[in-house]
Amino acid sequence: MDLRAAIAPSLPPPDPTISYWQDPPHSLSTYRAPDLPESTSVVIIGSGISGASIASELLERPSPPDVLLLEARDTCSGATGRNGGHTKCSSYRAFLDNVRDQGEREAAEIARFEYNCMKAVHAFARGKGIECDSWEGDTVDIIYDQAQWNRAKKAISEIRRILGKHDPVAQYTFYTAEETAEKFLAEGAIGAVLYAAGSLSAYKLVIGMLKLAIGKGLNLQTNTPVLKLQRPRDCKSEWIVETSRGLIRTKKVIMATNGYTAYLYPPFQGIIVPLRGTVTAQRPGSKMPKDGLKTTYSFIYRNGYEYMIFRPPDSEFAGDLVIGGCATKSTEEGLYEWGTVDDTSMNAEIGQFVRESTQQYFGSHWGDDHPEGRVRRQWTGIMGYSSQGFPLVGEIPDEENLWVAASFQGQGMVLCLHTAKALVNMMYGEDGEALDMWFPQAFRISSDRFKHQFRGRLHETAPKDLEVQSQL
After folding, report:
1. I want to staple 414 with a disulfide (CB 3.0 to 4.6 A). Which of 118, 176, 303, 322 is the partner?
2. Rounded Cα gap, residues 142 and 187, in angstroms
Protein backbone atom coordinates (compact mmCIF):
# COMPACT_ATOMS: atom_id res chain seq x y z
CA MET A 1 0.00 0.00 0.00
CA ASP A 2 2.88 2.40 0.69
CA LEU A 3 3.94 2.26 -2.96
CA ARG A 4 0.39 2.88 -4.19
CA ALA A 5 -0.09 5.78 -1.78
CA ALA A 6 3.15 7.33 -3.05
CA ILE A 7 1.92 7.64 -6.64
CA ALA A 8 1.50 11.33 -7.42
CA PRO A 9 -1.94 12.09 -8.90
CA SER A 10 -2.28 13.94 -12.17
CA LEU A 11 -5.01 16.22 -13.40
CA PRO A 12 -8.25 14.43 -14.25
CA PRO A 13 -7.56 12.79 -17.62
CA PRO A 14 -9.59 13.67 -20.73
CA ASP A 15 -12.29 11.40 -22.16
CA PRO A 16 -13.37 9.51 -19.01
CA THR A 17 -15.89 6.69 -19.11
CA ILE A 18 -19.41 8.10 -19.41
CA SER A 19 -21.57 7.44 -16.38
CA TYR A 20 -25.24 6.51 -16.46
CA TRP A 21 -26.09 9.86 -14.86
CA GLN A 22 -24.21 11.97 -17.43
CA ASP A 23 -25.94 10.55 -20.50
CA PRO A 24 -27.12 12.75 -22.05
CA PRO A 25 -24.97 15.58 -20.70
CA HIS A 26 -26.76 18.66 -19.39
CA SER A 27 -26.41 21.92 -21.30
CA LEU A 28 -24.47 23.27 -18.30
CA SER A 29 -21.82 20.56 -18.68
CA THR A 30 -19.50 22.73 -20.80
CA TYR A 31 -20.66 26.10 -19.47
CA ARG A 32 -18.27 29.03 -19.32
CA ALA A 33 -19.28 32.43 -18.01
CA PRO A 34 -18.52 35.21 -20.52
CA ASP A 35 -15.44 36.43 -18.67
CA LEU A 36 -12.53 34.70 -16.95
CA PRO A 37 -11.40 37.35 -14.46
CA GLU A 38 -7.80 38.21 -13.74
CA SER A 39 -8.68 38.65 -10.06
CA THR A 40 -11.49 37.62 -7.74
CA SER A 41 -12.32 37.20 -4.06
CA VAL A 42 -12.68 33.41 -3.88
CA VAL A 43 -11.62 30.59 -6.21
CA ILE A 44 -13.20 27.17 -5.71
CA ILE A 45 -11.53 24.29 -7.53
CA GLY A 46 -13.87 21.40 -8.34
CA SER A 47 -17.52 21.31 -9.43
CA GLY A 48 -18.80 18.22 -7.59
CA ILE A 49 -21.17 18.18 -4.62
CA SER A 50 -18.50 19.73 -2.38
CA GLY A 51 -17.59 22.62 -4.66
CA ALA A 52 -21.22 23.31 -5.58
CA SER A 53 -22.29 23.26 -1.92
CA ILE A 54 -19.50 25.65 -0.91
CA ALA A 55 -20.42 28.04 -3.71
CA SER A 56 -24.06 27.92 -2.64
CA GLU A 57 -23.16 28.66 0.98
CA LEU A 58 -20.92 31.59 0.06
CA LEU A 59 -23.53 33.14 -2.22
CA GLU A 60 -26.22 32.88 0.48
CA ARG A 61 -24.19 35.24 2.68
CA PRO A 62 -25.13 38.91 3.02
CA SER A 63 -22.95 40.89 0.61
CA PRO A 64 -21.46 37.69 -0.84
CA PRO A 65 -17.96 37.69 -2.30
CA ASP A 66 -17.17 37.26 -5.97
CA VAL A 67 -16.88 33.49 -6.45
CA LEU A 68 -15.10 31.81 -9.35
CA LEU A 69 -15.51 28.04 -9.71
CA LEU A 70 -12.94 26.26 -11.88
CA GLU A 71 -13.47 22.75 -13.24
CA ALA A 72 -10.76 20.76 -15.07
CA ARG A 73 -13.25 18.90 -17.27
CA ASP A 74 -17.02 19.16 -17.75
CA THR A 75 -19.33 20.18 -14.92
CA CYS A 76 -19.68 17.49 -12.26
CA SER A 77 -17.45 15.08 -14.19
CA GLY A 78 -15.64 13.74 -11.11
CA ALA A 79 -16.75 11.37 -8.35
CA THR A 80 -20.13 13.03 -7.72
CA GLY A 81 -21.31 12.55 -11.27
CA ARG A 82 -19.96 9.02 -11.36
CA ASN A 83 -21.27 7.58 -8.09
CA GLY A 84 -23.81 4.85 -7.34
CA GLY A 85 -26.72 7.14 -6.45
CA HIS A 86 -26.87 6.22 -2.77
CA THR A 87 -27.54 8.60 0.11
CA LYS A 88 -26.65 6.15 2.83
CA CYS A 89 -24.70 6.53 6.06
CA SER A 90 -23.68 3.12 7.35
CA SER A 91 -22.62 4.69 10.63
CA TYR A 92 -22.66 1.44 12.57
CA ARG A 93 -19.88 0.05 10.36
CA ALA A 94 -17.35 2.55 11.73
CA PHE A 95 -18.90 3.19 15.13
CA LEU A 96 -16.84 0.81 17.28
CA ASP A 97 -13.59 2.05 15.73
CA ASN A 98 -14.68 5.66 16.25
CA VAL A 99 -15.50 5.00 19.90
CA ARG A 100 -12.08 3.43 20.38
CA ASP A 101 -10.15 6.15 18.55
CA GLN A 102 -12.23 9.29 19.16
CA GLY A 103 -14.30 8.58 22.26
CA GLU A 104 -18.02 8.08 22.74
CA ARG A 105 -19.04 11.71 22.37
CA GLU A 106 -17.20 12.24 19.10
CA ALA A 107 -18.38 8.90 17.70
CA ALA A 108 -21.96 9.92 18.44
CA GLU A 109 -21.42 13.33 16.85
CA ILE A 110 -20.05 11.76 13.66
CA ALA A 111 -23.04 9.42 13.40
CA ARG A 112 -25.49 12.29 13.96
CA PHE A 113 -23.68 14.48 11.44
CA GLU A 114 -23.94 11.80 8.75
CA TYR A 115 -27.62 11.15 9.42
CA ASN A 116 -28.56 14.84 9.53
CA CYS A 117 -26.61 15.58 6.35
CA MET A 118 -28.28 12.67 4.55
CA LYS A 119 -31.70 14.05 5.45
CA ALA A 120 -30.63 17.60 4.57
CA VAL A 121 -29.58 16.66 1.03
CA HIS A 122 -33.11 15.50 0.19
CA ALA A 123 -34.65 18.45 2.02
CA PHE A 124 -32.41 20.84 0.06
CA ALA A 125 -33.51 19.34 -3.26
CA ARG A 126 -37.18 19.61 -2.26
CA GLY A 127 -36.83 23.12 -0.90
CA LYS A 128 -35.02 24.41 -3.99
CA GLY A 129 -37.24 22.57 -6.45
CA ILE A 130 -34.35 20.58 -7.94
CA GLU A 131 -35.58 17.55 -9.87
CA CYS A 132 -33.01 14.84 -9.13
CA ASP A 133 -35.02 11.63 -8.69
CA SER A 134 -34.86 12.05 -4.92
CA TRP A 135 -36.17 9.01 -3.04
CA GLU A 136 -36.20 8.42 0.73
CA GLY A 137 -36.92 5.09 2.37
CA ASP A 138 -35.01 2.15 3.82
CA THR A 139 -31.83 0.32 2.97
CA VAL A 140 -30.85 -3.21 3.89
CA ASP A 141 -27.39 -4.62 4.53
CA ILE A 142 -27.29 -8.30 3.60
CA ILE A 143 -24.49 -9.84 5.68
CA TYR A 144 -22.74 -13.06 4.69
CA ASP A 145 -19.86 -13.16 7.20
CA GLN A 146 -20.23 -14.16 10.86
CA ALA A 147 -17.69 -11.66 12.15
CA GLN A 148 -19.38 -8.85 10.21
CA TRP A 149 -22.74 -9.91 11.65
CA ASN A 150 -21.36 -9.98 15.17
CA ARG A 151 -19.78 -6.58 14.71
CA ALA A 152 -23.07 -5.14 13.46
CA LYS A 153 -24.93 -6.46 16.51
CA LYS A 154 -22.32 -5.10 18.91
CA ALA A 155 -22.03 -1.71 17.18
CA ILE A 156 -25.77 -1.10 17.04
CA SER A 157 -26.07 -2.07 20.70
CA GLU A 158 -23.44 0.56 21.49
CA ILE A 159 -25.17 3.19 19.33
CA ARG A 160 -28.39 2.61 21.23
CA ARG A 161 -26.60 2.78 24.57
CA ILE A 162 -24.72 5.99 23.78
CA LEU A 163 -27.28 7.91 21.72
CA GLY A 164 -30.42 6.43 23.26
CA LYS A 165 -32.62 3.79 21.70
CA HIS A 166 -35.18 6.36 20.52
CA ASP A 167 -32.67 8.56 18.70
CA PRO A 168 -33.33 8.54 14.90
CA VAL A 169 -29.71 7.51 14.35
CA ALA A 170 -30.28 4.38 16.44
CA GLN A 171 -33.18 2.98 14.43
CA TYR A 172 -32.12 -0.41 13.08
CA THR A 173 -34.06 -3.63 12.51
CA PHE A 174 -32.43 -7.08 12.37
CA TYR A 175 -33.64 -9.98 10.23
CA THR A 176 -32.75 -13.65 10.48
CA ALA A 177 -31.42 -15.68 7.56
CA GLU A 178 -34.89 -17.03 6.82
CA GLU A 179 -36.50 -13.60 6.99
CA THR A 180 -33.75 -12.16 4.80
CA ALA A 181 -34.31 -14.76 2.10
CA GLU A 182 -38.08 -14.23 2.13
CA LYS A 183 -38.27 -10.45 2.47
CA PHE A 184 -35.19 -9.34 0.53
CA LEU A 185 -34.77 -12.25 -1.94
CA ALA A 186 -31.20 -12.84 -0.74
CA GLU A 187 -30.41 -16.47 0.06
CA GLY A 188 -27.36 -17.75 1.91
CA ALA A 189 -26.96 -14.76 4.21
CA ILE A 190 -26.48 -14.88 7.97
CA GLY A 191 -28.94 -12.04 8.40
CA ALA A 192 -29.79 -8.47 7.45
CA VAL A 193 -29.92 -4.99 8.97
CA LEU A 194 -32.55 -2.44 7.88
CA TYR A 195 -32.29 1.34 8.42
CA ALA A 196 -33.03 4.72 6.79
CA ALA A 197 -31.38 5.81 3.54
CA GLY A 198 -32.22 7.19 0.13
CA SER A 199 -31.11 7.67 -3.44
CA LEU A 200 -30.89 10.41 -6.05
CA SER A 201 -29.07 11.53 -9.15
CA ALA A 202 -26.16 13.48 -7.70
CA TYR A 203 -25.41 14.79 -11.19
CA LYS A 204 -28.87 16.37 -11.48
CA LEU A 205 -28.61 17.70 -7.93
CA VAL A 206 -25.30 19.46 -8.59
CA ILE A 207 -26.46 20.82 -11.95
CA GLY A 208 -29.48 22.25 -10.15
CA MET A 209 -27.32 23.75 -7.39
CA LEU A 210 -24.97 25.37 -9.89
CA LYS A 211 -27.83 26.80 -11.97
CA LEU A 212 -29.15 28.51 -8.85
CA ALA A 213 -25.67 29.70 -7.91
CA ILE A 214 -25.06 31.15 -11.39
CA GLY A 215 -28.29 33.09 -10.93
CA LYS A 216 -26.77 34.60 -7.78
CA GLY A 217 -23.52 35.58 -9.45
CA LEU A 218 -21.32 32.47 -9.56
CA ASN A 219 -18.71 32.55 -12.33
CA LEU A 220 -18.37 28.94 -13.53
CA GLN A 221 -15.56 28.02 -15.92
CA THR A 222 -15.47 24.42 -17.14
CA ASN A 223 -12.55 22.78 -18.96
CA THR A 224 -10.21 25.15 -17.17
CA PRO A 225 -7.76 22.97 -15.22
CA VAL A 226 -5.73 24.51 -12.44
CA LEU A 227 -2.07 23.75 -13.02
CA LYS A 228 -0.41 25.35 -10.01
CA LEU A 229 -0.98 27.41 -6.86
CA GLN A 230 1.60 29.97 -5.80
CA ARG A 231 1.98 33.12 -3.74
CA PRO A 232 2.33 36.53 -5.39
CA ARG A 233 5.64 38.19 -4.58
CA ASP A 234 3.99 41.28 -3.15
CA CYS A 235 1.50 39.61 -0.78
CA LYS A 236 1.86 36.49 1.36
CA SER A 237 -1.85 36.27 2.18
CA GLU A 238 -3.16 35.99 -1.39
CA TRP A 239 -2.75 33.38 -4.14
CA ILE A 240 -2.01 33.16 -7.82
CA VAL A 241 -4.00 30.40 -9.49
CA GLU A 242 -2.33 29.26 -12.70
CA THR A 243 -4.83 27.74 -15.14
CA SER A 244 -4.62 26.46 -18.70
CA ARG A 245 -6.17 29.78 -19.74
CA GLY A 246 -4.07 32.20 -17.72
CA LEU A 247 -3.33 33.49 -14.22
CA ILE A 248 -5.93 34.54 -11.64
CA ARG A 249 -5.18 36.44 -8.46
CA THR A 250 -7.44 35.72 -5.51
CA LYS A 251 -7.78 36.37 -1.80
CA LYS A 252 -8.84 32.80 -0.97
CA VAL A 253 -8.55 29.38 -2.61
CA ILE A 254 -10.78 26.42 -1.71
CA MET A 255 -9.74 22.99 -2.97
CA ALA A 256 -12.80 20.79 -3.41
CA THR A 257 -10.70 18.32 -5.35
CA ASN A 258 -11.07 15.07 -3.35
CA GLY A 259 -8.78 12.35 -4.77
CA TYR A 260 -6.85 14.80 -6.94
CA THR A 261 -5.90 17.20 -4.12
CA ALA A 262 -2.23 16.18 -3.87
CA TYR A 263 -1.71 17.29 -7.46
CA LEU A 264 -2.31 20.90 -6.39
CA TYR A 265 -0.85 20.67 -2.90
CA PRO A 266 1.89 17.99 -2.77
CA PRO A 267 2.01 17.78 1.07
CA PHE A 268 -1.24 15.82 0.73
CA GLN A 269 0.65 13.03 -1.03
CA GLY A 270 -0.06 9.86 0.96
CA ILE A 271 -2.53 11.79 3.14
CA ILE A 272 -5.37 11.80 0.60
CA VAL A 273 -5.11 8.77 -1.65
CA PRO A 274 -7.33 8.17 -4.70
CA LEU A 275 -9.26 4.96 -5.17
CA ARG A 276 -10.98 3.98 -8.41
CA GLY A 277 -14.49 2.60 -8.03
CA THR A 278 -16.53 0.64 -10.58
CA VAL A 279 -20.30 0.95 -11.06
CA THR A 280 -22.88 -0.55 -13.42
CA ALA A 281 -26.49 0.21 -14.30
CA GLN A 282 -28.37 -3.02 -14.96
CA ARG A 283 -31.77 -4.01 -16.24
CA PRO A 284 -33.49 -6.35 -13.72
CA GLY A 285 -33.87 -10.04 -14.48
CA SER A 286 -37.16 -11.58 -15.57
CA LYS A 287 -38.04 -12.99 -12.13
CA MET A 288 -37.33 -9.84 -10.16
CA PRO A 289 -40.42 -8.07 -8.73
CA LYS A 290 -42.38 -6.41 -11.54
CA ASP A 291 -43.17 -3.43 -9.34
CA GLY A 292 -39.49 -3.06 -8.39
CA LEU A 293 -37.52 -3.47 -5.18
CA LYS A 294 -38.62 -1.56 -2.08
CA THR A 295 -35.24 -0.89 -0.45
CA THR A 296 -31.70 -0.09 -1.50
CA TYR A 297 -29.07 -2.71 -0.64
CA SER A 298 -25.54 -3.45 0.45
CA PHE A 299 -24.06 -6.94 0.30
CA ILE A 300 -21.41 -7.34 2.99
CA TYR A 301 -18.85 -10.15 3.16
CA ARG A 302 -15.57 -10.76 4.98
CA ASN A 303 -13.36 -8.23 3.23
CA GLY A 304 -15.66 -5.97 1.26
CA TYR A 305 -19.11 -5.08 0.06
CA GLU A 306 -21.24 -4.03 -2.88
CA TYR A 307 -23.88 -1.29 -2.79
CA MET A 308 -27.02 -1.06 -4.91
CA ILE A 309 -29.99 1.19 -5.49
CA PHE A 310 -33.11 0.75 -7.59
CA ARG A 311 -34.26 3.57 -9.84
CA PRO A 312 -37.50 4.90 -8.35
CA PRO A 313 -40.87 5.07 -10.10
CA ASP A 314 -41.32 8.00 -12.49
CA SER A 315 -37.55 8.26 -13.09
CA GLU A 316 -35.93 7.44 -16.40
CA PHE A 317 -35.28 3.69 -16.59
CA ALA A 318 -37.40 3.10 -13.47
CA GLY A 319 -36.54 -0.25 -11.88
CA ASP A 320 -32.95 -0.32 -13.11
CA LEU A 321 -30.40 -1.49 -10.55
CA VAL A 322 -27.29 0.60 -10.05
CA ILE A 323 -24.65 -1.52 -8.32
CA GLY A 324 -20.99 -0.86 -7.58
CA GLY A 325 -18.12 -2.23 -5.56
CA CYS A 326 -16.22 -5.50 -5.92
CA ALA A 327 -12.97 -3.60 -5.37
CA THR A 328 -11.45 -6.42 -3.33
CA LYS A 329 -12.29 -9.06 -5.94
CA SER A 330 -9.27 -8.37 -8.13
CA THR A 331 -5.54 -9.07 -7.78
CA GLU A 332 -4.21 -8.54 -4.24
CA GLU A 333 -7.70 -7.53 -3.06
CA GLY A 334 -7.87 -4.51 -5.32
CA LEU A 335 -4.49 -3.04 -4.37
CA TYR A 336 -3.93 -1.61 -7.83
CA GLU A 337 -7.13 0.43 -7.77
CA TRP A 338 -5.43 2.62 -5.15
CA GLY A 339 -3.26 5.49 -6.33
CA THR A 340 -4.80 5.79 -9.79
CA VAL A 341 -6.87 8.70 -11.11
CA ASP A 342 -7.58 6.98 -14.42
CA ASP A 343 -11.34 6.94 -14.87
CA THR A 344 -10.99 6.46 -18.63
CA SER A 345 -10.82 2.68 -18.16
CA MET A 346 -11.65 -0.07 -15.68
CA ASN A 347 -10.15 -3.16 -14.14
CA ALA A 348 -11.40 -6.12 -16.20
CA GLU A 349 -11.65 -8.48 -13.21
CA ILE A 350 -13.65 -6.00 -11.15
CA GLY A 351 -15.82 -5.08 -14.10
CA GLN A 352 -16.78 -8.72 -14.61
CA PHE A 353 -17.56 -9.27 -10.92
CA VAL A 354 -19.80 -6.20 -10.81
CA ARG A 355 -21.66 -7.25 -13.96
CA GLU A 356 -22.30 -10.72 -12.52
CA SER A 357 -23.06 -9.62 -8.96
CA THR A 358 -26.81 -9.09 -9.28
CA GLN A 359 -27.48 -12.60 -10.52
CA GLN A 360 -25.12 -13.96 -7.87
CA TYR A 361 -26.89 -12.21 -5.00
CA PHE A 362 -30.48 -12.76 -6.12
CA GLY A 363 -29.89 -16.30 -7.38
CA SER A 364 -33.11 -18.06 -8.42
CA HIS A 365 -35.00 -14.78 -8.01
CA TRP A 366 -33.08 -13.20 -10.90
CA GLY A 367 -34.33 -15.25 -13.84
CA ASP A 368 -33.25 -14.54 -17.40
CA ASP A 369 -31.45 -11.41 -18.41
CA HIS A 370 -33.37 -8.67 -20.18
CA PRO A 371 -33.66 -9.20 -23.95
CA GLU A 372 -31.62 -6.02 -24.50
CA GLY A 373 -28.89 -7.27 -22.17
CA ARG A 374 -28.24 -7.04 -18.46
CA VAL A 375 -25.86 -4.09 -18.43
CA ARG A 376 -27.10 -0.73 -19.62
CA ARG A 377 -23.85 1.10 -18.78
CA GLN A 378 -20.62 0.57 -16.83
CA TRP A 379 -18.17 3.25 -15.67
CA THR A 380 -15.52 4.20 -13.14
CA GLY A 381 -14.89 7.15 -10.83
CA ILE A 382 -12.17 8.39 -8.49
CA MET A 383 -12.80 8.72 -4.75
CA GLY A 384 -10.50 10.15 -2.07
CA TYR A 385 -9.50 8.42 1.19
CA SER A 386 -7.53 9.62 4.20
CA SER A 387 -5.32 7.78 6.64
CA GLN A 388 -7.83 8.17 9.51
CA GLY A 389 -10.97 7.57 7.48
CA PHE A 390 -12.33 11.12 7.84
CA PRO A 391 -12.59 14.15 5.55
CA LEU A 392 -10.02 16.93 5.82
CA VAL A 393 -11.76 20.27 6.24
CA GLY A 394 -10.53 23.78 7.03
CA GLU A 395 -7.66 26.16 6.45
CA ILE A 396 -4.41 24.32 5.81
CA PRO A 397 -1.94 24.87 8.67
CA ASP A 398 0.63 27.60 7.93
CA GLU A 399 -1.02 28.34 4.56
CA GLU A 400 -3.10 31.46 5.07
CA ASN A 401 -6.26 31.57 2.94
CA LEU A 402 -5.74 28.11 1.44
CA TRP A 403 -8.75 26.00 2.35
CA VAL A 404 -9.71 22.40 1.69
CA ALA A 405 -12.78 20.18 1.83
CA ALA A 406 -11.76 16.78 0.50
CA SER A 407 -11.30 13.07 1.16
CA PHE A 408 -14.90 12.00 1.67
CA GLN A 409 -14.23 8.23 1.74
CA GLY A 410 -16.82 7.46 -0.94
CA GLN A 411 -19.51 8.98 1.33
CA GLY A 412 -19.74 12.48 -0.10
CA MET A 413 -23.51 12.50 -0.44
CA VAL A 414 -23.95 12.22 3.33
CA LEU A 415 -21.03 14.51 4.22
CA CYS A 416 -20.50 17.34 1.74
CA LEU A 417 -23.56 19.55 2.13
CA HIS A 418 -23.09 20.21 5.84
CA THR A 419 -19.30 20.15 5.51
CA ALA A 420 -19.63 23.08 3.11
CA LYS A 421 -21.67 24.97 5.69
CA ALA A 422 -19.02 24.30 8.33
CA LEU A 423 -16.18 25.40 6.04
CA VAL A 424 -17.88 28.69 5.18
CA ASN A 425 -18.57 29.30 8.87
CA MET A 426 -14.85 28.84 9.52
CA MET A 427 -13.96 31.22 6.70
CA TYR A 428 -16.17 33.88 8.26
CA GLY A 429 -14.68 33.42 11.72
CA GLU A 430 -17.75 31.61 13.05
CA ASP A 431 -15.66 28.83 14.49
CA GLY A 432 -16.57 28.61 18.13
CA GLU A 433 -18.66 26.43 20.40
CA ALA A 434 -21.72 26.71 18.18
CA LEU A 435 -19.90 24.98 15.32
CA ASP A 436 -18.36 22.41 17.64
CA MET A 437 -21.87 21.40 18.69
CA TRP A 438 -22.57 19.79 15.31
CA PHE A 439 -19.37 19.58 13.24
CA PRO A 440 -17.06 16.69 14.22
CA GLN A 441 -13.64 17.66 15.48
CA ALA A 442 -12.25 14.57 13.72
CA PHE A 443 -13.02 16.14 10.33
CA ARG A 444 -10.94 19.25 10.91
CA ILE A 445 -7.57 19.52 9.27
CA SER A 446 -4.55 19.92 11.57
CA SER A 447 -0.79 19.49 11.49
CA ASP A 448 -1.21 16.18 13.28
CA ARG A 449 -3.28 14.75 10.46
CA PHE A 450 -0.30 15.01 8.10
CA LYS A 451 1.60 12.55 10.32
CA HIS A 452 -0.61 9.45 10.00
CA GLN A 453 0.42 6.67 7.66
CA PHE A 454 -2.13 5.65 5.06
CA ARG A 455 -3.52 2.14 5.69
CA GLY A 456 -6.16 1.76 3.00
CA ARG A 457 -9.92 1.69 3.38
CA LEU A 458 -10.84 1.39 7.05
CA HIS A 459 -13.74 -0.45 8.73
CA GLU A 460 -13.81 -3.02 5.91
CA THR A 461 -13.15 -6.20 7.87
CA ALA A 462 -14.31 -7.16 11.34
CA PRO A 463 -11.76 -7.91 14.08
CA LYS A 464 -10.76 -11.55 14.39
CA ASP A 465 -12.17 -11.88 17.89
CA LEU A 466 -15.67 -11.17 16.58
CA GLU A 467 -15.58 -14.29 14.43
CA VAL A 468 -16.27 -16.45 17.46
CA GLN A 469 -18.33 -14.10 19.60
CA SER A 470 -22.00 -14.86 19.22
CA GLN A 471 -24.27 -11.84 19.58
CA LEU A 472 -27.41 -13.63 18.45
Report:
1. 118
2. 9
